[in-house]
From TrEMBL:
Entry-linked Pfam families: E3_UbLigase_RBR, IBR, IBR_1
Organism the protein comes from: Priapulus caudatus
Name of the molecule in the record: E3 ubiquitin-protein ligase RNF31-like
Aminoacyl-tRNA synthetase among keywords: no
Classification via SMART domains: IBR
């Protein structure tokens, strides 16, 4: 029998060997925890010192119970994990090498192996235009001048570039899917629409309703709320209220209803992205009940409807309360 390192759970050598072999080959190193209680919490509560001690002890255990090539893969992943936690370490954007010693005072850094440059902050291949732009402005500039990116905007199956707000890892995600994202590198959980962190209700004390389970505190212009609003209303908000131009529709295949429905979802996401990009408040699109919910979430007293006022008047009063007392973010 083998005793786990961070808890009192135990299992036979064969079972632990199969479990850790599978985890090492297919998962992040942060998932190499006890199969029974999932401890320690390497992606959350465990400190750097605790994680380092755990991996050091785990390395000794794994050397005895898994095959040599599996143990070497673990050590390789552990090395990469340790390097990525070093603030000055960077993987080269051009080759597969990494290096330490980058100068944070300079935006452009050079890989000592391939001699090509990249940005120290966003880690994108270096271009002279980047010198006068922030990383976000540079990425937007590249996208607007990239024909492939423009074509992607019109594709039914367009994919979205997501970057983890915790470790900055970039990966692609198909549109129309779940908005709850778990980073494959650091296991940080966040919303793909607003980047707000998903957290366990027992660890969040913001509102009483937080105790109900895993959740994030999305701003009201996040796709999490806008995806239930009719596209015509989103279009009117953009064009009539703010004068923002947009594509009337995304190209779609009309051979099947499912394709049309899928394109409608993608188009709603496209409009929602514009609303969030321009910092637009979608409160005028919300019903009186949803406006009440916004106030309740933020612990703002919800005004009661008087006997003498119409529902439209009450709605305007709720809207004013939301826009003046509840920040968009």
């Amino acid at each position: 029998m083998v005793l786990m390192i961070s808890c009192s759970h135990r299992a036979c050598v064969g079972c632990f060997s199969k479990y850790f072999t599978n985890k090492i080959k297919s998962c992040s190193i942060l998932e190499l925890t006890c199969p029974f209680c999932k401890q320690p919490d390497l992606a959350g509560e465990a400190s750097d010192e605790q994680a380092s001690k755990y991996f050091s002890d785990l390395d000794v255990l794994l050397k005895k119970i898994v095959e040599k090539d599996t143990h070497e893969l673990f050590q390789s992943k552990l090395r990469d994990y340790s390097l990525e936690r070093e603030p000055r370490f960077r993987w080269c954007a051009h080759c597969s090498c990494g290096f330490i010693g980058a100068d944070a005072s300079s935006m452009a850094i050079e890989c000592p192996f391939c001699r090509k440059k990249m940005c120290y902050r966003c880690r994108q291949p270096w271009e002279l235009k980047h010198a006068s732009l922030t990383c976000q402005e540079f990425e937007s500039w590249k996208q607007q001048r990239n024909p492939e990116y423009q074509a992607t905007m019109n594709s039914l199956l367009k994919r979205n570039i997501i970057d983890c707000p915790n470790c900055s890892l970039k990966f692609t995600l198909a549109k129309g899917g779940c908005m709850h994202i778990t980073c494959s590198r650091c296991k940080h959980q966040f919303c793909s629409g607003c980047k707000k962190t998903f957290m366990d209700g027992t660890k969040c004390q913001v509102f009483q309703s937080c105790n109900k389970g895993l959740h994030a505190h999305h701003p009201r212009n996040c796709l999490f709320y806008l995806r239930d609003i009719m596209t015509e209303a989103l279009q009117q908000l953009l064009q009539v209220n703010y004068g923002i131009t947009f594509q009337k529709r995304l190209r779609q295949a009309r051979s099947a209803n499912s394709a049309q429905d899928s394109c409608r979802v993608h188009y709603t996401e496209y409009l929602a992205e514009l609303i969030q990009k321009h910092g637009i408040d979608p409160a005028p699109l919300l019903t009186d009940r949803k406006l009440q919910a916004v106030l309740q979430r933020e612990r703002v007293a919800v005004p009661r409807m008087t006997a003498s006022e119409s529902r439209a008047t009450y709605w305007h009063r709720l809207l004013d309360e939301v826009q003046t007392k509840v920040p968009l973010t």
